[in-house]
Amino acid sequence: MADLKLLTERVVEKEKAAIRERVEEARKDAEDEIQAARAKQEQDKIARKQAIDEAAQNNYTIRKNTLEIQRRNDVLAAKQAILSRVFEDVKKETNHLEEADYKVFLTNVLSQFKEEKQVTLVSGEHTKGLVDQAWLDATTGPSFKATLSNEVVTDNAGVLVQKDGIEYNFLFDALIEDAKPELVPIITKELFV
User: Fold this and answer.
1) Which of 25, 45, 124, 176 is the most buried (most CB within 10 A)?
2) Cα–Cα distance, 176 to 124 (Å, whole number)
3) Distance set, CA 144 to CA 74, 76, 118 (Å)
């Protein structure tokens, strides 16, 4: 019976040792899983932080670029408004041209038609009365006849030259519009550089 008890104790001890070994192994596996989970969690945390940092940097870059574009557009709009105001001021000034200046202008216009026999001049409303037919006759001479029409171009300054059914526009508003492409770079350089 003693052998049976000893044998039973040995079997029990052996089973206890096997159980302890399985428990120890399970504990180690659990610790390994916990360590792996912690490592994965740390990697995920680093990846999330990196993603957040990248997203924040992208948002910052986009916002910065948007603000720079908006600033540039605002500056361009302000410059455009100034240029428009300059041209409007020039147009207003030409509506109040001095008689002597207008006569110089009209002499230059007429010189372009000196090879013609006859032209008709239609004055702009703002320059009507700065020259008369007597001045035209004295300026053009006997070989070239420039006739001053009784018609006027409303709310304009300058002159329309009519010849053989063709009308040549020397109204100041039109001349200013035609000169804009050449004048804008010059004015821009003077005002904004």
Assistant:
1) 124
2) 15
3) 54, 49, 6
- How many Cβ atoms from other residues are within 10 Å of residue 119's Cβ? 22
Q: How confident is the model at residue 1 (pLDDT cuts 50, 70, 90)?
A: low
User: At 126, phi and psi to the nearest 5?
Assistant: -80, -15
Long-range contacts of 130-134 (CB under 8 A, 24+ apart): 130/97, 130/99, 130/102, 130/103, 131/99, 131/102, 131/103, 131/106
Cα separation, 74 vs 85, in Å, equals 16
How far is the C-alpha of 61 from the C-alpha of 121, rounded, in Å? 62
DSSP secondary-structure letter at 174?
A: H
Among the listed residues 169, 187, 186, the one whose alpha carbon sits nearest the alpha carbon of residue 178: 169
* Residue 131: predicted pLDDT: 94
CA distance 71 to 78: 10
Helix axes 99-111, 133-140, angle to 10 degrees: 50
Q: Quick check: 108 pLDDT over 80?
A: yes
